[in-house]
Each structure stands twice: as C-alpha cells, then as structure tokens.
Amino acid sequence: MKAIINQSIVPAIRNMKDFDQLLKTDYEFLVLLNAHIAQVKPLVRRAAEQGKKMFLHADLIEGLKSDEYATEFLAQEIGPAGIISTRNNVVLTAKRKGLIAIQRLFMLDTLALENSYVQLEKTKPDYVEVLPGIIPHIIREFLEETKIPVLAGGLIRTDEDVRLALEAGATAVTTSRKALWQKQEA
User: Fold this and answer.
1) Which pLDDT does position 181 carry in this prediction?
2) Cys-Cys with 91: which of 111, 123, 139, 170 at CB 3.0–4.6 Å?
3) Under CATH, which architecture does the 9-184 domain have?
4) d(C-alpha 24, C-alpha 164), whole Å
C-alpha cells in the first residue's frame, strides 16, 4: 500500500539550509527540488533517519537525465518515497518500481488542460501536481474529471492561496515558501 499524504503543506526544498531546518519539523513528506546527483542518496538517507519521506523531482536532479533508466536508478539505489516528473515515461517507471508517482502538469491554457487528461489516462499517477496552484476551479475540474488526488504547486504565496487550494479539493500544497511551512506545520 502506497503512503497517503496526510499534511496540508508539503515543503519543497531548494537548498541544504532548508533541508536541515525541515528535518526538525513534524512534516512527514518533503520534496527535494534542485540537487546534484551526488547529494541525493545521503539526503534521502538522512531524511529517513528522521522519519521523513522524500519525493524527488526527477526533472531537476543535476547530473541525471530524466528518463526511465534514471528512474530505475533512483528507485533501486536511492529509495525515495516517490518521484515527481512532467515526463510520462518517468511516471510510469516510478509506478512500476513501487514508488509514489506524481505527475507534474503546467496549466498554461485550455489545450494544456485537455492534453493533460489524455496523458493521465496513460500514466494513471498516484497524484497530480497542478501548476500554478492558485486556480481553484481547475483543481476542482481535475478532481471531477480524473479522480486523481491533486497537489497544488506554483505561485502559492499566501495563507489565502493555501486555503483556496485546499477548499477546492487539493490534498496538499507544495511550496518552497518558508513562511507557509511555519504557519502550516503538520
């Protein structure tokens, strides 16, 4: 059984200072954004030692091509809780390897929205991260159309943005904004 995200904020880590700070919090799930491939294994290990589960944004790991082979490597050698990616083959491989698969989708226009439904029929991820996360009516539409849990990310700047995304049905909000981590700690 895959883990269920049970926190309203999922902090997204951009630097090591934030990582160290978040290890001391009650958050169970964290997202690792920008990291070098050599940093990833020790970071995931340190997080696990503190009871944290890491989602790796596969598209943003420096020194690693974001494809199915890299995803197999991450699953076998690094052991994160899950993978976030915009790439279908990465999401499918993460699922096949037993990781939580999060498909990141950018909602730029109606065509992007319609294409995302076609993508999701193929990949059937565990979660969808919708960007920008400040469009509650799209969050609602995604949930109604796909029945896939939604994470709202991108341009979430205020408590009001968090509240609106959650009220629209988002499971959680992913954010690198530290002020929101402290206010919403698990």
Assistant:
1) 93
2) 123
3) Alpha-Beta Barrel (3.20)
4) 28
Alpha-carbon span 101 to 138, nearest angstrom: 21
- The angle at the Cα of 32, spanning 100 to 98, to the nearest 5 degrees, equals 15
Which segments of the chain does DSSP mark as H helices, in order? 16-22, 37-49, 68-73, 88-96, 110-123, 136-146, 159-167, 178-184
What distance, in Å, lies between the first and last C-alpha atoms of the chain?
22
Show the tokens assigned to 35. 């990291």
Counting DSSP H helices and E strands in the chain, the numbers are: 8, 10
Tokens of 27: 């958050």
pLDDT band at residue 183 under the 50/70/90 scheme? low
User: By the 8 A CB rule, do 54 and 47 touch?
Assistant: yes
Query: In percent, how much of the chain has pLDDT > 70?
Result: 97
With tokens 């699953």, the residue in question is 75
Give helix 136-146 / helix 110-123 axis angle, nearest 10°: 40
Q: Determine how β-strand 127-131 pairs with β-strand 100-106.
A: parallel
Average pLDDT across the chain, whole number: 95
- Partners of 175 in the beta sheet? 11
Q: Where are the domains of the chain?
A: 9-184
Cβ atoms < 10 Å from Cβ of 22: 20
Start-end of H helices in 27-83 = 37-49, 68-73
